[in-house]
Every structure is written in structure tokens, then in C-alpha cells.
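Researcher: Structure prediction, please.
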Amino acid sequence: MPALATRFHVGAGTHIGPITVFPVWSEARTDEQYITSAPAGLEISELESASVGTLAVTNQSDKTVLIPEGTILYGGLQTRVLTADVLLGAGSEDRLEVRCVEQGRWGSKVPTAFAGRAPITVVGALRGLRRGTRTRDRANQQDVWQRVNFYEKTYGSRMSSSLESITNLRTNDMMHLNDHFETARIRTNAQLADSVKRDLQQLALHPLPGQNGVMIGLSGQPVLLEIFSDELAFREQLSAILDAVAIDAPHATGEKTPGRRAVRFADFIMDQPLIESDIAPNLFSGSSERLDMRSLLGASQRGLLHTAVVNARHELVLAA
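Model: Predicted structure follows.
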């Protein structure tokens, strides 16, 4: 593809704490039917010879399922995160490339299930984006763990260093802290994130007519764009996208992201050439000094189902 095949429009932003949320309307449409929630009959399990970096998935439902990059897969022998978009046709089975986001546990738990989306710093690790280097490659497990530790410094260490308990702000999983000042700082961070999360959830309940995408601004700069070709799929994911963003509220400055920067970032995205990627089937990618983009082509080859772009220069994409 010479560039993103579908154009899009960015609307006026809504400021919630340090986060700015811009609605997006895209020309991306397809007659391909898919969902992004887990239907009855979708089973994610360990391999017969269990592996940290790979899970098995079987879709016994009659629906095509798109599991977005960064989906947290809670349970199993340990909680993992999906490294790239995966499209599963009805009645199909596949293997998922994942990275561990829960150190300190390798044992049975509840069956693996979707548990929200990873925050932007972890997504940076999944794309091989690191401070001080322009080399981008597959997700490095050590880098992913470092990014989880980045959030533990903000929200307190966990019994098993679990990203899932951090993103869901589960304080009962925290290690006991004897330092009262540190406890107060962590509590303040959690309260800020929880307050922002509640306000973002109200926004997620009311997407605008025709809206099928969202751009997020943090610390005065756009940091993330996601577009789905199906409005219902977008609505399914909007809450999880905004929940993940809320986790970074304590890390962001109070600067609002102006609309002109969102529009300029959109122009960069629409001008960015895409090439077929070897990361996953039907995945196209494009990168520059400014951005890193991935677009998933539908099985019918007639349109892009999901496009996700991160700002490759943003401090939180590169944080560790």
C-alpha cells in the first residue's frame, strides 16, 4: 500500500484531567463481519508443552473474532499480553504470540480470558520502541517486564508483578509497604487514575454518531490513534482503550493537547506508506521518526479492519 488507503477526520477534543480524547470518523468500512469481544466457544489455552511466548486459541463459534494488539490475557499459567492483532475465522484455530506481564507465577489459575488493554508504555515495548535507538523489532520480554515495573513504581509492587492487577487498580494485590510517605504517594496516584478512569468511562458510554475511531493526547501531544472499520467493534473496544489510557494520568503533565497538533498528527499518518509485515498474517506496517503504524487487512482482502498508531517520539511510549 502506498499510504493509508482510508482517510479520516479528527473532531474537537474533550479534556479529562491530563488526557485529551478526540473523536475520529474514518472512511474505513468493510462488509466483513467481525467482533472484538470473546464469544462463547472461543478458548485460549496453554500449549501441550507450555511456552511463555505462545498460547493456543480455538474459535468454535460462528463469528469471526479480531483480538487487538495489547489485549491482556488473564489467567492460565501466567498472564500475558498479545503482541499483534489476530483475526480468527469461525471454526478456526491458531497460535498467539504473547509476552508475559506477570512475573513470579507459573501455575494454574482461572482459564485465560480477555482482561482489558495494555497501557501505552507497554505497547511501546511490544513494538520494539526504545529510548535512544531507532531500531524497531519484535517485542522483547525483558523490555516488557521493565515497562510493567515502570507502572509498579507508580502504583506499588504486586505479589506476582501482574500488569492486569495494575490496570484494573486492584489495591488488594499490592505488597505491604512500611514507608508511609511511599504509601501516600501510591494512594494519590491510584486516586487520580481512578477519578480520570470514571470520567473517561462516561465518555465511552456516549460515542458520537458514526464515530469509529479515537485519538488520545497526553502531555500536550497526540500519543495514540485507533480506528476500526466496524462501529460496533469500535464501541466494544472504546472502554478498554480509555481504561488503559487512564493508568498514565499520574505520568502526564497537565498540558492539554490542542486540536492543531491532532490534525497535524493525522496528516502524518495519512501520508505514511505501508508495507506488508512479517509480524502477523494480513498485517501492514509503516514507521517514521514520528510514528509507528499497524493496519490489519481483512480476510476478504477488501479493506482494513483495524489501524493502530503510536507516536514514536512520545515520552510515555518510550518510558521504562
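Model: The chain has one domain: 8-44+119-311.
Researcher: Thanks, that helps.
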